[in-house]
Amino acid sequence: MDILTSYSFLIVAIGTVILSAAAGIVGSISVIKGQSLIGDAIGHATFPGVVLAFMLFNVMETSVLVIGAVLFGIIAFQLIHVITDFSKITLDSALALVLSGFFGLGMALKSYVQGNPNFSGTQGIDDFIFGQAAYMLKSDVYLIIAASVISLVLFFFYYQQLRIYTFDPIYARTVGISIRFMNVLVLAVTIMLIAVGLKAVGAVLIVNILIAPAVTGTLWSNKFMTVLIIAAVSGGMSAFIGTYISTALTGIATGPAIILALSICVIFSMLFAPKGIFAKQSRLRKLGEAA
């Protein structure tokens, strides 16, 4: 109980819970459309932007580093489309190329910066690889809240258009919905959440908070709004549990603890949800008995 009233725990918990809940809602679009790996590629591609922003301004302020992350996320997304539109390279190959290439660039820049006496205070850069939520500041939480609120306001303002765009893009065109604008909107809110979540979860693990809650939601319901609610709740609860475990047990980082909690939630849903393994086996058994 002492942990639950601890100031440092509350700061980290508020940030991670809000981030995971918002990411679960926004990530549902990518999961339903079968574009989950785009978020993974963008997440890894933001890391060199973080390092370059540090190199330019020589400060370890999250608000400054987020700008670099956002810019490189946009560049990565555009590059993926250029590769797939103007070459014979498939989407999955383009994602792998961009993911590994950008992350490799980030690691090379990190090695250069950390070995250069002209740059000081470089230790914090490693936090953006695997995350270090335990060192989140109040300003980081404010940044997460602002990004989450903006993302959710945009999401629900265009909720009807996004729902049609997600399930039937052809019909969306016929009723005058701009597919290009919807793509930009989803990209903008996704990159925004990825950028502010890097310090908490890291570039390697950030995609999990976008995908895992949404996967959980789709396993429990076919209704879009219900999927969003389940994704937000499962994401927020997993973030709280992971933050609590990492605070209570020494030596366990917050980001990986949150990812493990999310993974357990997904595994549980895969087994026991209405669209899970046991439910499918039960239906097949009933069909066999009826035949």
Compact overview of the structure:
It contains 13 helices and no strands.
Provide an overview of this structure.
This protein is an all-alpha fold and 291 residues long. It has a single domain (7-277), classed as ABC transporter involved in vitamin B12 uptake, BtuC (Orthogonal Bundle). 80% of the residues lie in helices and 0% in strands. The longest helix is centred in the N-terminal third of the chain and has 26 residues, at 7-32. The mean pLDDT is 88.
Structural class: mainly alpha
Q: Give the number of helices.
A: 13
Question: Approximately how much helix is present in the residues?
Answer: over 70%
SS strand fraction: under 5%
Number of domains: 1
Q: For the record, what CATH class applies?
A: Mainly Alpha
The CATH architecture designation is Orthogonal Bundle
Q: What's the CATH topology name?
A: ABC transporter involved in vitamin B12 uptake, BtuC
- Morphology call: globular
Taking the alpha carbons of the first and last residues, their distance comes to 56 Å
Order of helices and strands: HHHHHHHHHHHHH
Number of strands: 0
Subcellular location: Cell membrane
GO biological process, one term: response to zinc ion
Main location: membrane
Pfam family, one: ABC-3
Give short descriptive properties of this protein.
291 residues; mainly alpha; ABC transporter involved in vitamin B12 uptake, BtuC; 13 helices; 0% strand; globular
